[in-house]
Amino acid sequence: MQKQSFKDSYMTWTILIVLFVVFLIETALGGSQNSAVLIKMGAMSNYAVVAGGQWWRLFTAQFLHMGIMHIVSNAVMIYYLGIYMEQILGHWRFLLVYLLSGIGGNLLSLALGSDQAISAGASTALFGLMGAMTAIGLHNRDNPVIVYLGKQAFWLALINIGLDLFDTNIDIQGHIGGFIAGCLLAIILGDRSMQKYSAKSRFVAGGILLVYLVATVRMGMVIRF
Predict the structure, then answer these.
(1) pLDDT of residue 1
(2) Cα 167–171–175 angle (5° rounding)?
(3) 35, 123, 193, 198: which one is catalytic?
């Protein structure tokens, strides 16, 4: 069995460290489940984004968590996906997919989610990793290990989205949006071995991503009271 070293997955470890540091700050400021603290630190609030022009919340919300179980469950999944995906994608592609998927997920939440809700969590980015691994698995069909990991990521995302339907406190739009964004980004960026989809596939994925961005922003600009 091959050993994992810090240098193989240093972006994954950096992400986890940042998440827990932010969680400690939340706790010190009054609690990670305190709405005022969450809003102050950048949680998603559709009204604040649109009416207040605070578009940076699309980025910052993915670093906040509500309660210890929330951050622990996300951190475990990020670790297990990250230690192999970072090697497949490459450090900087991995980070780019992770962060942009988080924004992509929050955009769908802005477009279709409740305008009265406050949401936060790394799960938008986490689902982006699942989407990216699904796309990579579909492209590398001559590699049984990559195909297996892609299938596992797809079914893991599908099962979790299915479970989301039975929990009204879960931001299912953010999860679906993160998965879509991650899948498209993986097609556009390729992986570490420079295995890329065809130019046509990448162009189509880029077009779909652009349409997704414009559509979610336009829909999100309408606040429903």
Answers:
(1) 40
(2) 110
(3) 123
